[in-house]
Amino acid sequence: MTILPHTQEMINEAKEWAKELGSLNNSITSGKGNAAGRVGELALAKYLNVKTPSDKYNHDIKYDGKTIEVKTKRRIIAPKNHYDVSIAKTSNHQKPDRYAFISLEFKKSGYYGKPAEGLQRKGGKQYSGLINVWYCGDISYDKFWETAELWKKGRTDSSNDFTTLVDMYNLPISQLDETLVEDKDVFGF
Fold first, then answer.
1. Angle between helices 8-21 and 34-48 (to 10 degrees)
2. Residue closest to 101 by CA, chosen among 128, 130, 69, 78
3. What residues does 69 pair with on adjacent strands?
4. Which of 13, 23, 126, 159 sits between 20 and 30 A of 32, alpha carbons compared?
5. Are 128 and 109 a contacting pair, CB within 8 Å?
6. In contact, 58 and 138? CB cutoff 8 Å
7. 29: left (phi over 0), alpha (psi -120 to 50) or beta
8. Residue 110, SS3?
9. How far is CA 63 from each of CA 34, 60, 98, rounded to the nearest angstrom?
């Protein structure tokens, strides 16, 4: 895993973009994760020295002739190899060449809203104080769908007490490649 540089300018741009975008169809967080996703896209695009993310239907970034869909998770601790990356079943219409997985590490989080149906915890998490943007790895479209495990809505992960809100496909970070950063130095420049 590699820490990608990020700036306050990226955060500001992501917040503005998310505000204009609003909630997407099939959004698990009703649009609350859009800014986080955009920070992941912006940091990876800058690291790879490619144009600003494209917002195409099937991918976010084009790099070295390949289309890349960036999937971002928010956390309050650094990711570990046994943690999972996920793609919601509602996103399996996307057909990029590769998926890239990003984790944003924050100083703190808290809950907001009412409990989600059937759950004791409140409706969602809010995060503050971005510490690190982690590139966890990447994988080809075909390999992800051949190896990922389907987690049905309502399944609880015993390692972190997270309950899935939709059907999603999970894969441990340890099964990802790092093809997008193998030729870069530690700072990505």
1. 130
2. 69
3. 99
4. 159
5. yes
6. no
7. alpha
8. strand
9. 22, 10, 10
Question: What CA–CA distance (Å, rounded) separates 61 from 59?
Answer: 6
Tokens 């998926």 sit on residue: 99
| CA 164 – CA 29 distance, rounded (Å) | 12
Tens digits of per-residue pLDDT, 47-103?
999 987 766 667 889 999 999 999 999 998 999 999 999 999 988 888 999 999 999
In contact, 137 and 4? CB cutoff 8 Å: no
For 102-115, the pLDDT digits (tens) are 999 999 777 656 55
Nearest to 135 by CA among 87, 179, 90, 82: 179
Beta bridge partners of 88: 168
H helix runs in the chain, sequence order: 8-21, 34-48, 141-147
pLDDT exceeds 50 at position 25: no
The amino acid at 76: I
